[in-house]
């Protein structure tokens, strides 16, 4: 049964309402009644009714104000108004609150009340069914991801064709073509560590996997899997002179890279098998192992996507990793003198020499790490192993030098990895404070311009120059960071978090959240371990 709270300052009216209809027959139970709006709020919080039947003309706080506060606290509650006032402006205010009905006391009949209550019950049942369906979809999505991960592991282990294709079909993957192309992708560690904390790396990878899975729906034959440390992309196709499978796969990867850069701010590197391979489903595991083992094949090419010939690329590297002594000395001097220009010059010199000499990548990366440790030791700027662990896994020269520069700048500025950046420009601090104070409201650039006593037209140009992005993106991004923190650290539902951040429409909130965080609120809440 659904719980009902009745509020009316006319005590005889309370008794009349309770006797007017058979509440139990309507699947309703009156859990409390009161003549006081103040007491009504306390009962509302304690009993959490599903439906409130309230008089408008209450003392202290009128019914419109009371209902508004109740809806703010629990947007899902249904409201029916009773009043002696026939003036239409009351009805107008009630309609703005999205209440279920507005009834005149003097004209009230059992039939009228029953019809209004039945309408509220229908809406309550529909909302419950929608919530249950959404919960089911979220649960299925979580289970589907586990099943996909399990299937991918089986795919890498191998098996006969019928077993693998049947297993794929049970997950809704239609692999009815004879050949496959495989691509493996990895995020830029420099992009991640320069924008996020290291602990966010798994979430960033998960975000890339979600973007890829959504984009795959636009490209025929594409299936994506979360590969632990990266992303695996499979194209199932039938060889044809009229259709170029390789171009199709590369078009998907290019669009995926653009979306990852746009939504997450991180670059990605991909290695793709050649169309000459024409992999059978039983050969995917061996191809995956071969490509993963050739992780340095594109270290010096610096292309976002490298196509590997069937036999692999020749490993034409210079033995050892010497020849950078002058540049390393300049790096140390740059840190000592806080000379940003000299730091850039030394890193550019290492890049030129590395591209010319092509030292063996693993040795080169190891030497970079050793030089960083020497500088740390020299300036007693120890900050743990986080960056070094990432440096050892870099797959491109640009990523390795990016991390090296990031570390040296942290030493130069006396900051540890993961410490907050320098304070924001004072105007941005003021804007952040305004957004935080009006979090549950829709904030426009006009509001901020007025707050700062600036012309709105000038403010838009000024803000873009100040922050590097337009005002709408800035507000959304700021609010989504707060929303993510609320989802992770509180037990609030997604709907409540959305309302606290000023989004009355859950669907729109989820769309904005996924754009700036990379996953849906439900997925983020699940991965954060908050139920």
Automatic annotation (TrEMBL):
<keyword id="KW-0805">Transcription regulation</keyword>
<keyword id="KW-0804">Transcription</keyword>
<dbReference type="InterPro" id="IPR011006">
    <property type="entry name" value="CheY-like_superfamily"/>
</dbReference>
<feature type="domain" description="Response regulatory">
    <location>
        <begin position="3"/>
        <end position="120"/>
    </location>
</feature>
<dbReference type="Pfam" id="PF12833">
    <property type="entry name" value="HTH_18"/>
</dbReference>
<feature type="modified residue" description="4-aspartylphosphate">
    <location>
        <position position="55"/>
    </location>
</feature>
<dbReference type="InterPro" id="IPR001789">
    <property type="entry name" value="Sig_transdc_resp-reg_receiver"/>
</dbReference>
<dbReference type="InterPro" id="IPR018060">
    <property type="entry name" value="HTH_AraC"/>
</dbReference>
<dbReference type="InterPro" id="IPR020449">
    <property type="entry name" value="Tscrpt_reg_AraC-type_HTH"/>
</dbReference>
<keyword id="KW-0597">Phosphoprotein</keyword>
<dbReference type="InterPro" id="IPR018062">
    <property type="entry name" value="HTH_AraC-typ_CS"/>
</dbReference>
<keyword id="KW-0238">DNA-binding</keyword>
<dbReference type="Pfam" id="PF00072">
    <property type="entry name" value="Response_reg"/>
</dbReference>
<dbReference type="InterPro" id="IPR009057">
    <property type="entry name" value="Homeodomain-like_sf"/>
</dbReference>
<feature type="domain" description="HTH araC/xylS-type">
    <location>
        <begin position="429"/>
        <end position="527"/>
    </location>
</feature>
<protein>
    <submittedName>
        <fullName>Response regulator</fullName>
    </submittedName>
</protein>
């Amino acid at each position: 049964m659904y719980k009902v709270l009745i509020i009316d300052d006319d005590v005889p009216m309370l008794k009349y309402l309770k006797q007017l209809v058979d509440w139990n027959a309507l699947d309703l139970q009156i859990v409390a009644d009161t003549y006081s709006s103040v007491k009504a709020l306390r009962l509302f919080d304690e009993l959490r009714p599903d439906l409130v039947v309230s008089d408008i003309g209450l003392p202290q706080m009128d019914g419109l104000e009371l209902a508004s506060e109740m809806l703010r606290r629990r947007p899902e509650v249904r409201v029916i108004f009773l009043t002696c006032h026939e003036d239409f402006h009351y009805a107008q205010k009630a309609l703005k609150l999205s209440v279920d009905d507005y009834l005149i006391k003097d004209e009230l009949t059992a039939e009228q009340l029953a019809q209004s209550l039945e309408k509220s019950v229908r809406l309550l049942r529909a909302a419950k069914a929608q919530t249950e369906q959404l919960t089911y979809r979220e649960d299925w999505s979580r289970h589907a991801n586990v099943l996909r991960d399990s299937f991918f592991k089986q795919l890498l282990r191998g098996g006969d064709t019928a077993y693998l294709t049947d297993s794929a079909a049970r997950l809704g993957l239609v692999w009815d073509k004879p050949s496959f192309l495989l691509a493996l992708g990895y995020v830029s560690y420099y992009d991640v560590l320069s924008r996020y904390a290291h602990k966010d790396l798994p979430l960033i990878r998960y975000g890339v996997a979600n973007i890829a899975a959504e984009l795959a729906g636009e490209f025929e034959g594409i299936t994506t899997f979360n590969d632990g440390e990266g992303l695996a992309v499979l194209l199932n196709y039938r060889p044809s002179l009229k259709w170029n499978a390789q171009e199709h796969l590369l078009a998907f990867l290019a669009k995926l890279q653009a979306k990852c850069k746009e939504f997450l701010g991180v670059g990605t590197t991909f290695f793709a098998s050649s169309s000459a391979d024409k992999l059978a489903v039983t050969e995917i595991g061996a191809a995956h192992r071969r490509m993963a083992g050739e992780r340095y094949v594109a270290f010096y090419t610096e292309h976002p996507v490298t196509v590997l010939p069937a036999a692999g690329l020749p490993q034409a590297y210079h033995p050892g990793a010497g020849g950078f002594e002058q540049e390393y000395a300049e790096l140390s001097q740059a840190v000592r003198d806080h000379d940003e220009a000299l730091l850039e010059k030394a890193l550019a010199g290492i890049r030129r020499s590395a591209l010319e000499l092509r030292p063996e990548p693993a040795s080169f990366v190891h030497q970079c790490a050793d030089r960083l440790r020497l500088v740390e030791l020299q300036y007693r700027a120890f900050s743990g192993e986080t960056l070094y662990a990432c440096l050892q896994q870099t797959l491109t020269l640009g990523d390795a030098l990016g991390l090296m520069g990031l570390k040296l700048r942290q030493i130069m500025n006396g900051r540890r990895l993961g410490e907050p950046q320098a304070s924001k420009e004072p105007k941005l601090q003021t804007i952040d404070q305004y957004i935080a104070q009006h979090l549950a409201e829709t904030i426009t650039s006009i509001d901020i311009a007025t707050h700062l006593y600036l012309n709105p037209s000038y403010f838009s140009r000024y803000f873009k120059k100040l922050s590097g992005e337009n005002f709408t993106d800035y507000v959304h991004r700021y609010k989504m960071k707060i929303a993510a923190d609320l989802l992770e650290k509180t037990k609030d539902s997604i709907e409540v978090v959305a309302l606290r951040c000023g989004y009355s429409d859950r669907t729109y909130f989820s769309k904005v959240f996924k754009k700036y965080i990379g996953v849906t609120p439900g997925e983020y809440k699940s991965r954060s371990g908050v139920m």
